[in-house]
Design goal:
Elements: E1 5-12, E2 20-29, E3 32-40, H1 52-58, H2 71-82, E4 87-89, H3 92-105, E5 113-117, H4 118-125, H5 133-139, H6 150-168, H7 173-180, E6 185-187, H8 189-200
Parallel strand pairs: 1-4, 4-5
Antiparallel strand pairs: 1-2, 2-3, 5-6
Helix pairs in contact: 4-6, 5-6, 6-7
């Protein structure tokens, strides 16, 4: 199996995980970037206020997303771009939480995806003082990018995974997870069913 995956990154308007205001995605096939996509998102109603702190971080303001489509209107495009790939994100719990929360706030089922966290992989691959995205990306030979730009961050995340796979001699994401001692997680119906089963047991 080749090293295929989609790296993804979200920026949020406020402290709510449902407040996605930007997404960046990078499709990797056989260890090479073959496509990218990014767009602004109008967060779901009730989660659409912009905090000054968040604006300072990513520079996206409420006026910037005024004409953007809502999460519910854009979710099909996100799913279509990712296809059936394993998703990869730096601190993936945050980004998977955004998908889950934004879907819940939009009264939509959470799409089913497996995912791997590049932060976990970086911690098992490099010896660094910090494993923040810019530092880990630099260790992977990817630097001088605009941190907190969703597309640039997803490109950095992809670079970490490709470099780490090479370091570990992994030919695909499952191998990389195993060799680096990282875990492939799941969101969506499969994960929710498993969670219910665990609680019942």
């Amino acid at each position: 199996m080749p090293l295929d995956f989609t790296a993804i990154d979200f920026e949020t308007a406020n402290n709510s995980a449902a407040s996605a205001c930007s997404v960046g995605m990078v499709k990797v096939r056989d260890g090479r970037v073959v496509d990218t996509a990014s767009w602004l998102i109008r967060p779901p109603f009730g989660h659409d206020g912009f905090l000054e702190w968040n604006v300072r971080i990513h520079g996206i303001m409420e006026v910037d997303v005024a004409d953007a489509l809502l999460w519910a209107e854009q979710l099909p495009d996100l799913i279509a771009f990712a296809e059936n790939d394993i998703l990869v994100a730096h601190n993936a719990g945050f980004d998977m939480g955004v998908i889950r929360a934004a879907c819940q706030a939009s009264y939509l089922p959470t799409p089913t995806f497996d995912y791997l966290c590049s932060l976990q992989v970086a911690r098992k691959t490099y010896h660094l003082d910090s494993y923040r995205l810019p530092v880990a990306a630099m260790a992977a030979g990817f630097d001088d990018f605009t941190h907190h730009n969703a597309l640039a961050d997803s490109e950095a995340c992809a670079a970490i995974i490709v470099h780490a796979a090479s370091r570990h001699g992994a030919s695909n994401i499952s191998e990389l997870a195993e060799l680096s001692g990282s875990r492939v997680g799941s969101i969506g119906e499969v994960a929710e069913t498993a969670g219910l089963r665990e609680r019942v047991l």
